[in-house]
Write a structure and sequence with these properties.
Helix content is 40%, strand content 20%. It is α+β, with helices and mostly antiparallel strands and 425 residues long. α12 links the parallel β12 and β13. Bound molecules: adenosine-5'-triphosphate and magnesium ion (MG).
């Protein structure tokens, strides 16, 4: 292969058919899970005006400062950005179309997100999220249900990430905490790294989110937001915890959990695993009551979460749960002129009955066709020779188990394959 060949962009991956089989299995589970909780899908454009993300996510965040794919549309000079996450777009669309006019809405989205990060295992420049937004609901019951709902999906996927929980309180408490933090960090200026110095006055809370080990001790001893919280926010947090306990959901309170996006308040949570190395957060979310108003909508509370699909799939795979069945249900091999005509009818009947069916193309003898049937990972070879065609029958040869081959009429063949394929799931 010449090394002039154009390759995909670094950190952006092709999903080949073996992978998409798994993704589709996963997506089917996810869609049905969302349906059962009464959430409805929303699809927004992948490009948005850059200002949307600056306003929603916050100017002094990793995402906006250094991770966004932003460019000028040369045709009209507008600054556009490939969406780095889904909440800003969802809220923009909800405001633009006045979706909350008759009360709260439960929405979900999924699709590719783009961040210019250093690619590594579990961290890509194009990655995929499924996100859930409960818009217009203020109570702790909503926060708790979002979390319970995640736990439900984990059970279905046979994975067991652990839950970290925190509260960020409300505006006034955050303001007081901010002042204390600035004073604290100022008195320890000599220990601050470059990032921290830059954030000291623009966004000191984000210093606590630092991944720099040299900052850990300083951060551990920093003034705690928990000590500033108002009664209302504390009661809200207590209620969330009681609801979780009542549902048997274990959690750990992590006062250092501040999240990398500015729009959160009150409840924040992350589902983390130690099975994926450094990229251990598979799902993150919380409450963001101020965001709708901040983006120009009529004030309304909101909460939600986003899951990283690549990380979740890696975790499911580490647990050994298969999400896809490889190969079609049937591969039809046929030789002879009469057989060919009948083989097409057989294919059509199998497909009408809902069975995934490959009809051999390109001729060749039975032996070479059987090799292809085997390589396709089909569950059954459906053999049609002139004999079978004359009798309007097929020979059914199992390719994945040791049961006997049998010659039957079409209706029985279909029934037989259907029964066998329902058993396998
Ligand atoms: P991290 O701390 O790992 O950078 P984050 O706080 O930036 O994550 P969010 O913006 O909360 O992530 O996105 C929600 C989820 O999306 C994350 O928990 C993770 O599972 C996934 N995710 C975020 N960035 C990436 C990425 N670059 N590649 C793959 N998955 C990602
Ligand atoms: Mg990040």
């Amino acid at each position: 292969m010449s090394n002039n060949n154009i390759q995909s962009v670094r950190g952006m991956n092709d999903l080949l058919p073996d992978a998409t089989d798994t993704w589709q299995g996963f997506e089917a589970i996810v869609r049905d899970w969302l349906r059962r909780y009464g959430y409805r899908e929303m699809r927004t454009p992948i490009l948005e005006h850059t200002g949307l993300f600056k306003r929603a996510i916050g100017e002094v965040t990793d995402i906006v400062e250094k991770e966004m794919y932003t460019f000028i549309d040369e045709l009209n000079g507008e600054s556009l950005t490939l969406r780095p996450e889904g909440t800003a777009s969802s809220v923009r669309a909800v405001i633009q179309h006045n979706l909350l006019y008759d009360g709260g809405k439960r929405l979900w989205y999924s699709g590719p997100m783009f961040r210019h990060e250093r690619p590594q295992k579990g961290r890509y420049r194009q990655f995929h999220q499924v996100g859930v937004e409960a818009l217009g609901f203020a109570g702790p019951d909503t926060d708790a249900e979002l979390i319970v709902m995640c736990a439900d999906l984990w059970k279905e996927l046979d994975i067991a990430p652990t839950l970290q929980l925190n509260t960020l309180g409300d505006q006034a408490a955050r303001q007081r905490h901010r002042q204390k933090l600035v004073a604290y960090f100022e008195s320890h200026r000599e220990v601050l790294d470059e990032d921290a110095k830059r954030r000291l006055h623009s966004n000191p809370l984000r210093i606590l989110d630092s991944k720099n080990p040299a900052m850990q001790a300083l951060n551990e001893a920093a003034p705690r937001l928990m000590d500033e919280l108002e009664d209302e926010a504390l009661t809200h947090f207590d209620d969330v915890q009681s609801l979780l306990r009542a549902h048997g959901i274990a959690f750990e309170i992590n006062p250092r959990l501040v999240r990398g996006l500015d729009y959160y308040n009150r409840t924040v949570f992350e589902w983390v695993t130690d099975q994926l190395g450094a990229q251990g957060t598979v799902c993150a979310g919380g409450r963001y009551d101020g965001l709708i108003e901040q983006l120009g909508g009529k004030p309304a509370p909101a909460a939600g979460f986003a899951m990283g699909m690549e990380r979740l799939l890696a975790l499911v795979e580490a647990g050994g749960r298969a999400l896809a069945t490889p190969g079609p249900d049937a591969y039809i091999v046929h030789a002879g002129d009469t057989a060919r005509v009948f083989a097409w009818q057989v294919a059509s009947a199998l497909r009408s009955a809902g069975l995934s069916t490959i009809l051999h193309c390109g001729g060749g003898g039975f032996k070479s066709q059987m090799k292809k049937a085997d390589a396709s990972c089909a569950r059954y070879a459906v053999i049609v020779g002139d004999d079978e065609a004359a009798a309007r029958q097929v020979t059914l040869k199992p390719l994945r188990d040791a049961t006997e081959q049998r010659r039957t009429g079409m209706a029985q063949a279909i029934q037989f394959i259907q029964e066998a394929t329902t058993q396998k799931v």
